[in-house]
Amino acid sequence: MDSRTERIPLPTEETAELGSEFEPFLQEWRPAPAAGTIVLTSRHLAIIGFAGMVALALMATLAYVAGRIASNGPSRIVMVDTAQAQPVVAQSPTPVPAAAKPVALPINTANTPGTGESFWQVGALDKGMATVSMKYLQENGLPARLEPVAGSPLMRVLVGPAVGADIAALKQKLDALGFPAFIKQY
């Protein structure tokens, strides 16, 4: 016979124990499993292994979260000498003073810019930040003031009025303090 047409021998009673050599070629010759037996293939084993790893990861995550919740920060151990311990006498609570009412800070708007005056505008900020910026600039020797922005809760932080040679000098001081600014003319 030609090697291309060679036939594979069918299993016999003597070769039934050696079924592994015939298994890739003839799967239908295997006997059916007995009733009530469980047959696990490699696919079943892979699924069971994957499910076991997921369950293990889930349990590890839950243990980690439970440990974090239970710890609530570092534990402290306090040693108390019972021979020297004395009872604590409850004192009447001291009244808490009422919160002070907020004080409105004056805004330098009395000197509203006149027509034709030039100022360096440092920013348009909310009232609190604008006040802090104005005070900082005044502490550093700059003539700062606030002006309300029409139709907005913002306040302009202005430095000036800047006239002639003062324009460049004020800009240098603002740059040195880290305030970007631009000229605003009224």
Overview of this structure, please?
This protein is 30% helix and 12% strand. The termini are far apart. The chain has a four-stranded antiparallel beta sheet, with helices on one face. Residues 103-110 have low confidence and may be disordered. The chain is α+β, with helices and mostly antiparallel strands. The chain has helices at 42-71, 127-139, 166-177; strands at 118-125, 144-148, 155-159, 182-185. A hairpin with a 6-residue loop joins strand 2 (144-148) and strand 3 (155-159). Among the domains are: 13-72; 118-185, 2-Layer Sandwich (Alpha-Beta Plaits). The chain is elongated and about 115 Å long. The chain is built from three helices and four strands; from the N terminus they run H-E-H-E-E-H-E.
Q: Can you lay out the helices and strands and say which pair or pack?
A:
Blueprint: H1 42-71, E1 118-125, H2 127-139, E2 144-148, E3 155-159, H3 166-177, E4 182-185
Antiparallel strand pairs: 1-3, 1-4, 2-3
